[in-house]
Specification:
By secondary structure, the chain is α/β, with parallel strands linked by helices. It has seven helices and eight strands, in the order βαβαβαβαβαββαβα. Strands 2-1-3-8-7-4-5-6 form an eight-stranded parallel β-sheet, with helices on both faces. Helix 5 links the parallel strand 5 and strand 6. Helix 3 runs parallel beside helix 4.
Length: 270
Amino acid sequence: MNRRRIGVLGLPWDGASSFQRGPAEAPAAIREAFRSEHSNEWAERGYDIGAADAWHDLGDLSLPDDAAECRTAVEAGVARVLEQDFTPLLLGGDHSLSYPILRAFRGRRGSFQILHFDAHSDLYDHLEGDRYSHACPFARVLEEGLAAGMTQVGIRTMNGHQRDQAERFGVKVHYASEWDGRMDLNPELPIYISLDVDVLDPAFAPGVSNREAGGLSTRQLIDALRRVSGPVIGADLVEFNPRTDVAGLTAVVTGKLFKEMIGLLLECGA
């Protein structure tokens, strides 16, 4: 196997959550679920994620409460990871973190596209006056030209403003109601994956801050990840909220997603 340097960095911050706090506790909970003896540590792509050299745990960033200071710290922290030649998997935290994460990539990995799994488009220009809410990160990303394109999968809360935003930025939207498994990625561009756990139906992942019925199954999501052939320059896994979980169900799901995303980066990481 062609080993990539995979670096896992936790971002325990949820100060931009609009409804419920709790995703700041997710990085530790995801690691614990991954290491649980309820399952083995092999990904479906055939890689032993428990092997000593499979990935590097870079710990968690210590993040300030102030939102602007947090964004600066995240951008700087992810930049250090990239400078060390890691392909990063970032564990959130709320989805506002994707904006400073992707700012860190600017000038370091060339042009790329975003593959975004979510119930929500996160394209609001602002939410209740906050331009840096977890409902807004991709408006900031796209208006700054941080990515050359974006494909969204699983969306099921789009309103008129967000439809206008998607058209403005040229976002390819695959709604949960009509998704047939296709992602229409540009084969010429590397991929950054942003995975919000609430893309899944609450029946599979109740432990999120903003539950939205009618989502993907865990199997559909894992199969979508397995269809990605890369190259993949990095990924984030966000919005798991341990405080709202039921019987540890979402922890099990995120532990599984962690394994599959590491497997994807091992096989397809840039």
